[in-house]
Amino acid sequence: MNNLLFLGDSLTAGYGLQNVHQESFPALIQQKINQNQLPYQVINAGISGDTSAGGLNRIDRLLLQPINIFVLELGINDILRGIPPAITQQNLQAIVNKVKQKYPQVRMALMGMELPLNLGGFLATEFLAIFRKVAEANQMAFVPFFLEGVAGLPHLNLADRMHPSAAGYRIIADKVWPVLKSLMIE
Predict the structure, then answer these.
(1) Which GO terms describe its molecular function (predicted)?
(2) Which single residue of 48, 86, 99, 124 could bond 120 by disulfide (Cβ 3.0 to 4.6 Å)?
(3) What separation in angstroms does the CA of 126 have from each of 30, 53, 62, 89, 120?
(4) Rounded to 10 degrees, what is the CA torsion of 98, 103, 104, 106?
(5) What count of Cα atoms within 13 Å lies in the side-chain half-sphere of residue 115?
(6) Is the dihedral of CA 80, 82, 84, 90 positive or negative?
(7) Which of 50, 52, 163, 165 is catalytic?
(8) Can you tell me the distance from the alpha carbon of 41 to that of 1, in angstroms, rounded to the nearest whole number?
(9) Which residue ranges form the domains of the chain, and what is each CATH number?
(10) Catalytic pick among 9, 10, 52, 165
(11) Which pTM does this prediction carry?
């Protein structure tokens, strides 16, 4: 069995869902893996509130188990905490470096995030660019905006309007699945 590791924040952890083990993004991807009879086991290493620095602190321990595919979904909490985009980019790159060093053959995907331009103008643009830079520098599969089609839509989010509902995660999983499936059948 091959391992697919999701390293992320509350969006990976499934914050606020009734049944995280069935409704979170990684759980939905595991269901799609099972339906397609692919030999992968999902590891959900999402922690609510995590930052890129937190992920960097956790990655060595997570890499004690073999990893075949690595999915990185971190960074939104950095910007919400005022961490400069350049620091977030350095941390994301350091995480990727550690994964590649430990498992040179690993296939990787990066889930990008966006901020509304009215929340920061130049800062929002700079933040958006870090994900593409990291993905391109490391030849990672890339989803430019992880929450595309869900962000800002009340009927697809929890009452906090920041975290997807189970219905929102189904849309995200359907959108991201082709990217992840392509890594599994290379």
Answers:
(1) phosphatidylcholine lysophospholipase activity
(2) 124
(3) 33, 18, 29, 10, 10
(4) -100
(5) 23
(6) negative
(7) 163
(8) 7
(9) 2-184 (3.40.50.1110)
(10) 10
(11) 0.95
| 8 A C-beta contact, residue 33 and residue 40 | yes
Task: Return the pLDDT at 82.
Answer: 85
SS (H, E, C) the chain: CEEEEEEECHHHHCCCCCCHHHHCHHHHHHHHHHHCCCCEEEEEEECCCCCHHHHHHHHHHHCCCCCCEEEEECCHHHHHCCCCHHHHHHHHHHHHHHHHHHCCCCEEEEECCCCCHHHCCHHHHHHHHHHHHHHHHCCCEEECCCCCCCCCCHHHECCCCCCECHHHHHHHHHHHHHHHHHHHCC
pLDDT band at 37 (very low <50, low <70, confident <90, very high): very high
10 catalytic, yes or no? yes
Per the listing, tokens 């910007």 go with: 79
Report pLDDT digits (tens) over 3-18.
999 999 999 999 999 9
Q: For residue 177, what are its two tokens? A: 């699945």
Closest Cα to residue 146, out of 99, 109, 183? 109
Q: Are 173 and 32 in contact (CB under 8 A)?
A: yes
